[in-house]
Design the sequence.
């Protein structure tokens, strides 16, 4: 039986409506899931919503809405986006669901039982946009480089996770390829970061700072789980980790390829924090972390925080689903940043789909109608060896590009046959 394939997207904050950047991630993961199904592999494709963060609370306050109703409304928008984009996901998990809450608390208890959680007083610079502490040396002109906001100075007593204990194991996992990092350039960056020394990180927030929103720390109702410690466990909580159910034992095992597809801004959380947490809890780490770049507009990252988002619902309604899926996969280099504009979408639509594919189909149908009385007849004697060889070579290249997460090049391979003079 082919090895099982479990793939997830990241779960986005629901502090605002979805933008085109997350649509790209959904479509990329969907492409990999559909490809693996075509290879006759059992596939489970998961996405969801991250609802327990402080930035969600702040957005709800700004909108004048009750937080529970606010996150529920936006979570439904993300669920609807998957439908509009024809995403073939098998489940959608919300981090306010009971299966997630119970699973996150069980996971905390497992790490605590391993001796990897302790409490201490701490002060540091905290970026709400990143939902993470950042250092002075990471700031650019005193601002978070990702969100261009000034971080808050935070001082309080929190629980910490002993990340430093897992430095050697993480370096070995990544350097050996047991935890595969795609593309390879990200692997080099991660190993450099690990070798500089890993520091323990805070995994809880006081109720006051969390504004009484989130999952309570087991045994300490004065603290809430840090959103990243909480959110990362969604990947196994959707598989009923809390009850160690059949789904978990089926899909998070050695016979499954366990893949996370994420944006480059959250690489550290998925390729360092999450594997270490899993090791602490006595569970398998991911098999692979696949990292895509950002969609940019005029070279600037699309961001809800920066307010330069593009509504994917509007774009799909105007241009249709298939052109939008095609454009995002073809125009945006899978592992790098790529610029988005409606002008580029229209240009690609006309050149590739209308003039390229459309004209080819029209010519072939015309030939069938005029020469074969409208009946398509197969005869091996009509096959040209050179054409068959070109198709074979292109197919091999196509499969390799999919495996290497070069989806844009895989599509280019297909279109090379459409535009070939042979």
Sequence:
């Amino acid at each position: 039986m082919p090895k099982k394939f479990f793939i997830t997207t990241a779960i986005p904050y629901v502090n605002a409506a979805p933008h085109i950047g997350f649509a790209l991630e959904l479509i990329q993961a969907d492409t990999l899931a559909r490809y693996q199904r075509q290879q006759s592999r059992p596939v489970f494709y998961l996405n969801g919503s991250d609802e327990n963060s402080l930035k969600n609370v702040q957005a709800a306050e700004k909108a004048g809405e009750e937080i529970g109703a606010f996150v529920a409304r936006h979570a439904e928008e993300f669920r609807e986006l998957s439908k509009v984009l024809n995403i073939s996901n098998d489940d959608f998990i919300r981090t306010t669901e009971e299966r997630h809450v119970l699973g996150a608390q069980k996971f905390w208890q497992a790490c605590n039982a391993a001796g990897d959680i302790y409490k201490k007083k701490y002060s540091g610079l905290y970026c709400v946009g990143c939902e993470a502490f950042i250092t002075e040396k990471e700031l650019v002109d005193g601002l978070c480089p990702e969100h261009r906001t000034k971080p808050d100075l935070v001082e309080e007593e929190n629980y910490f996770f002993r990340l430093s204990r897992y430095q050697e194991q993480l370096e070995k996992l990544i350097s050996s390829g047991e935890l595969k990092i795609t593309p390879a350039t990200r692997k080099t960056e991660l190993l450099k970061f690990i070798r500089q020394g890993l520091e323990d990180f805070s995994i809880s927030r006081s109720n006051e700072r969390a504004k009484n929103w989130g999952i309570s720390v087991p045994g300490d109702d004065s603290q809430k789980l840090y959103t990243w410690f909480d959110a990362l466990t969604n990947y196994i909580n959707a598989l009923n980790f809390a009850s160690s159910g059949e789904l978990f034992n089926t899909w998070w095992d050695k016979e499954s390829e366990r893949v996370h597809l994420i944006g480059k801004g959250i690489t550290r959380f998925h390729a360092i924090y999450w594997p270490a947490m899993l090791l602490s809890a006595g569970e398998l780490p991911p098999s692979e972390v696949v990292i895509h770049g950002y969609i940019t507009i005029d070279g600037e990252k699309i961001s809800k925080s920066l307010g330069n988002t593009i509504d994917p619902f509007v774009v799909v309604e105007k241009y249709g689903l298939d052109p939008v899926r095609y454009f995002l996969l073809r125009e945006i280099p899978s592992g790098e940043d790529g610029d988005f504009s409606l002008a580029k979408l229209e240009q690609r639509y006309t050149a590739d789909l209308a003039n390229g594919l459309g004209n080819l189909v029209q010519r072939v149908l015309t030939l069938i109608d005029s020469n074969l009385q409208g009946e398509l007849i197969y005869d091996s004697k009509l096959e040209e060896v050179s054409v068959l060889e070109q198709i074979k070579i292109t197919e091999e290249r196509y499969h390799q590009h999919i495996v290497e997460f070069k989806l844009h090049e895989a599509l280019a391979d297909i279109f090379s046959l459409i535009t070939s003079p042979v």
